[in-house]
Every structure is written in structure tokens, then in C-alpha cells.
Design brief:
Blueprint: H1 10-21, H2 27-37, H3 48-59, H4 63-67, H5 75-85, H6 91-104, H7 108-112, H8 123-134, H9 139-152, H10 159-167, H11 175-191, H12 193-200, H13 207-219, H14 225-231
Helix pairs in contact: 3-5, 5-6, 8-9, 9-11, 11-12, 11-13
Length: 237
């Protein structure tokens, strides 16, 4: 199927959905994918390299029109949408689409497939936008907000604000939000060890987040054996 289109029609979309199904690895693999992702969506188990190739082809044409059909019948379609939305350069357009996308998300993988382009010119826009997402009562909207925060760890000037954000989640009880928080703490330690040590000496993290973050550090080849042993003292029993 030709995926590089100047215009997308309903007929094109119908053809595309059948085309996508032709790459499915079958019902059994789809059921495995559904369990791993933990979603209410159907899963058709299209390999990630095929998805990336499809996204690349659609992006060569008028991918805005493709996005506007909002295909959301299975996980593969959501990942294609997320990867295409990530390619939008205008921040206002990007954030408009991403807000819709985030509010439809029901699983971690739909959140984590986003590839964000955060740089010195747009980092403040991303930071402010992440704060708006973190106010949501929907866990996967918050996870996408935290995904943005993860990218902002590349900019040390946001680190103190990020620590404040982490502390604000003490009462969080959603597994997939807490997992992202733990991941952020572990990456903080890898990228900004000394400041993160200062934070850990006076943090307000919940038990799950701190213990899982320490486990992630323990599993990381970027954390020294000495630091892995030292971090054990921060576990909450």
C-alpha cells in the first residue's frame, strides 16, 4: 500500500487498517501482547520494526490528515498515532494533539512510545505543558506528563523543580504512575548523583517509589557497586 499521501480519505483508512492486519503475528501473539501491555484495546502484534517503517512512510506525506482520523481500534494503531504526533514541529499543534491522545490512553506502552524533541528552544514550553498534564486525575495523562519530565532531566536547571514534583506524589497509588516516578528517580541518580543524594536524604517519596528506584539503580550498569550498596540504606521496610 502507498502510505505517502497528499490526502487521506475514509477509503484509504479502511484499506490501511486491512493492510496493518496483514502484518499481525496472530491471535496467540496478540493475546500475549495484550497481557504485557495490560490494555482494554485489541492487540494484533505487529512487530515494532514494521510499525516504525509505516510511521516513517506516512510522515513523508500529509500525516496531519492521517492523525485526524484518530484510529484507536488496537494498540498498534495508538502507537502509530503517538509516533506521528511526536513528529509535529509546531508546539501548539503538537500539544493540542497530544492532549487528546493522552486522555484516550489506557496503558503504559501507548504513553511510552512517544519520542519527544525537547531542546533549549522549546524546553520551557514542554516543562509548563508537563505541569498541566500532571494535574489530571487520569493516570496515563500523568504518566505522559512524567515522560516529559524524564526528558527534562537532560537540563540540570530543572532538577530542583523535578524533585518538588516527585515529592508531590507521596499519596499516588496507581502502579503505572509510581513505576514512572521510580524510573525518574533512578535516572536522576545516574545523571545527577550528588544532587540526587541530597534529595534522597530528605525526600517525601512513597515506599513503593523509593524501593523500586533503588532496585532500578541496583540493576543499572551505570551505578557503581559501592553506590548500589550505599543505596540499600534508603530502603523503607
Amino acid at each position: 500500500m502507498n502510505l505517502v499521501k497528499e490526502h487521506w480519505t475514509k477509503s484509504d483508512i479502511d484499506e490501511f487498517e486491512n493492510y496493518l492486519l496483514s502484518f499481525s503475528k496472530g491471535k496467540e501473539k496478540g493475546e500475549w501482547e495484550k497481557r504485557i501491555i495490560n490494555t482494554e484495546l485489541d492487540c494484533i502484534a505487529v512487530p515494532s520494526n514494521i510499525v516504525d517503517k509505516i510511521v516513517k512512510e506516512i510522515a513523508r506525506g500529509n500525516y496531519d490528515e492521517f492523525i485526524n482520523f484518530w484510529l484507536w481500534n488496537n494498540y498498534t494503531e495508538t502507537s502509530i498515532l503517538g509516533k506521528l504526533i511526536s513528529k509535529i514541529k509546531d508546539f501548539d499543534t503538537f500539544s493540542k494533539y497530544l492532549t487528546i491522545y493522552a486522555n484516550k490512553a489506557d496503558n503504559w506502552a501507548t504513553c511510552d512510545c512517544l519520542k519527544l524533541r525537547i531542546n533549549d528552544k522549546n524546553k520551557e514550553q514542554y516543562y509548563n505543558y508537563s505541569l498541566s498534564l500532571l494535574k489530571s486525575n487520569k493516570p496515563f495523562v500523568k504518566r505522559i506528563g512524567l515522560n516529559i519530565i524524564m526528558y527534562l532531566l537532560n537540563f540540570e536547571e530543572y532538577l530542583d523543580d523535578i524533585f518538588v514534583i516527585l515529592n508531590s506524589f507521596k499519596e499516588e497509588d496507581h502502579y503505572y504512575v509510581n513505576m514512572m516516578l521510580a524510573w525518574i528517580v533512578s535516572v536522576c541518580f545516574v545523571k545527577h548523583r550528588d544532587k540526587t543524594m541530597h534529595f534522597l536524604n530528605d525526600h517525601n517519596l512513597n515506599k513503593f517509589v523509593i524501593n523500586k528506584a533503588i532496585s532500578k539503580c541496583h540493576d543499572s550498569y551505570r551505578v557503581s557497586a559501592e553506590d548500589k550498596e550505599m543505596l540499600k540504606s534508603f530502603r523503607i521496610k
